[in-house]
Design brief:
By secondary structure, the chain is α/β, with parallel strands linked by helices. The chain folds into 2 domains: 3-124 and 273-286, Aspartate/ornithine carbamoyltransferase (Rossmann fold, 3-Layer(aba) Sandwich); 126-270, Rossmann fold, CATH 3.40.50.1370. It is 37% helix and 14% strand. It contains 10 helices and 9 strands. It has helices at residues 12-26, 48-59, 80-89, 126-140, 158-169, 192-198, 220-227, 231-235, 257-260, 267-286; strands at residues 3-4, 37-42, 63-66, 94-99, 115-120, 147-151, 173-177, 201-204, 242-244. Strand 2 (37-42), helix 2 and strand 3 (63-66) form a beta-alpha-beta unit. Helix 1 (12-26) crosses helix 4, helix 1 packs across helix 10 (267-286) and helix 4 crosses helix 10. The longest helix has 20 residues, at 267-286. The chain is globular. The chain binds N-carbamoyl-L-aspartate. N-carbamoyl-L-aspartate binds at residues 48-49, 119, 125, 128, 158-159, 206, 208, 246-248.
């Protein structure tokens, strides 16, 4: 299949190439296409990913078609495959898809048009991982040897799962921390205060309430006190360490209001970098380099 569905199977050289190209675009390099059309098909809520993909398309001169799942024929029982096949038949040059089903793209193997994964269930979110990596690379200039703690609702997070796989391949030491009920063993566990004191990257996650079968065992106030990045914890971080979060952030839950925009926070820079990473990915796919 064409496009970008997962980072698994993408070499570390290719990943570095995408980041380098995104940095060139951020530095002012220009790339434009004529007469191309792409759509964003989001079957789950999104602010950043959807509009960052659309901004990337606009920056590349690509015409953007917005799709409203709740006003589409999906409500008449049309399948994901038939919906995507429709956009292919309309002559689109690519679609971005977000769907709640893990690896939904396995149903789309007959589609020849490029598909960009904007998130599948709790499995993959490749452009989020790439923008996270770009942000880390801008900060440190390398990956190997960096120590990362991913803190929070690991078990329901496609961001955590995607990042753990690729960060390990890039030679980073990845740990998970947070409530035991969300520890799925996908990386070695680290005590929260130990993580705060020793890690180069503190990556926070939102508690994914909408994916929970069972109610969280504690109140959000208790979560904040036990696992949130409070000012006190932030002050214990290494001097050069940075705070990341894929957002949406819940101020006062996983991160204190005052910490979200403190000098160590790269949360808004991640959003900016997301546009360049998506420009790089779309452009490389359209040019046959990815
Ligand atoms: C994340 C997602 O949807 O996977 N957000 C994002 O894409 N920036 C994380 C989340 O919803 O908590």
């Amino acid at each position: 299949m064409r496009g970008l569905l997962t980072l698994k199977g993408l070499s570390t050289e290719k990943i570095q190439q995408i980041i380098n190209y995104a940095l060139e675009l951020k530095g002012g390099a220009k790339k434009t296409y004529e007469n191309k059309k792409m759509a964003t098909l989001f079957f789950e809520n999104s602010t950043r990913t959807q509009y960052s993909f659309q901004t990337a398309m606009i920056n590349l001169g690509i015409n953007v078609i917005s799709f409203n799942a709740s006003a589409s024929s999906v409500n008449k029982g049309e399948t994901l495959y038939d919906t995507v096949r429709t956009f292919e038949s309309l002559g689109l040059d690519g679609v971005v898809i977000r769907h709640s089903k893990d690896e939904y793209f396995k149903e789309l193997e007959n589609i020849k048009m490029p598909i960009f994964n904007g998130g599948d269930g709790a499995a993959n979110h490749p452009t989020q991982c790439l923008l996270d990596l770009m942000t880390i690379y801008e900060e440190y200039g390398h990956f190997a040897g960096l120590k990362v703690a991913i803190i929070g609702d690991i078990s329901h997070s496609r961001v955590a799962h995607g990042n753990i796989e690729v960060m390990n391949r890039l030679g980073m030491e990845v740990y998970i921390a947070g409530p035991e009920e969300y520890n799925d063993g996908s990386a070695p566990h680290i005590d929260l205060d130990e993580a705060i004191k020793t890690c180069d990257v503190i990556m926070l996650l939102r508690v994914q309430f909408e994916r929970h079968q069972e109610k969280m065992s504690m109140s959000v106030e208790e979560y904040h006190q036990k696992f949130g990045l409070t000012e006190e914890r932030m002050n214990n971080m290494k001097e050069k360490a940075i705070i990341m979060h894929p957002a949406p952030i819940n101020r006062g839950v996983e991160i204190a209001d005052s910490v979200a925009e403190c000098p160590k926070s790269r949360i808004y820079k991640q959003m900016t970098n997301g546009v360049y990473v998506r420009m790089a990915v779309i452009s490389m796919v359209l040019d046959g380099d990815l």
